[in-house]
């Protein structure tokens, strides 16, 4: 049963701390996406990669957010320093090609106090 | 702009049909998708339609596509309480490089 996995599922941290979220895409998928979901803004695309190379990260605040794919089985999203306005659910998704079906992970619920 | 638009909320009674509407932006879209998000979970693909089709039926789900008006709808027959969720439509026009564009989501509430 191939699934996208995300860790941690929940994270509570204090303002100013570094937060790292991890995602394992479905084996064989070549495209990985990071989204943020809040009540106010809805679902926002932060960044996506194809074959581990960033295709578009225009949705991501560059001063504090960074996204990488150290290898084909791991994608990371890092926030440093974190702020209360970063509180949201962060989803990772993977797929074959940017515009094809995306398979979503269960999300990381981040709370920054 | 690149906005895929949906109404925010729909309430129906159990057993009735639900119709969720979406307007998309690009007449050259290749695929249009419907995703479902249950509470506390990620989005899950429900169904999709290729742009050269007008209609697609899959059990209780019927997707209608009006390319002239760039209008997509999802009809759920015999709506059940388990159908309560947020429904997102999404369009794709470049399967290689361009990510899907998602709508804001329609929250469907099914009253028993």
Structure summary:
The complex is a heterodimer of chains A (113) and B (112). Chain A is mainly beta. Helix content of chain A is 0%, strand content 56%.
What attributes characterize this protein structure?
heterodimer; A: mainly beta; seven-stranded mixed sheet; 0% helix; globular; B: 112 residues; mainly beta; six-stranded mixed sheet; 54% strand
What does this 3D model show about the protein?
The complex is a heterodimer of chains A (113) and B (112). Chain A has 113 residues and is an all-beta fold. In chain A, 0% of the residues lie in helices and 56% in strands. In chain A, the strands form 2 sheets. In chain A, strands 2, 4, 5, 6, 9, 10 and 11 form a 7-stranded mixed beta sheet that branches. In chain A, strands 1-3-8-7 form a 4-stranded antiparallel beta sheet, with no helix packed on it. In chain A, strand 4 and strand 5 form a beta hairpin. Chain A starts with a strand and ends with a strand. The mean pLDDT of chain A is 94. Chain B is mainly beta. Chain B contains no helices and 11 strands. In chain B, a hairpin with a 5-residue loop joins strand 4 and strand 5. The termini of chain B are far apart. The mean pLDDT of chain B is 91. Chains A and B meet through strand 5 and strand 10 of A and strand 4 and strand 5 of B.
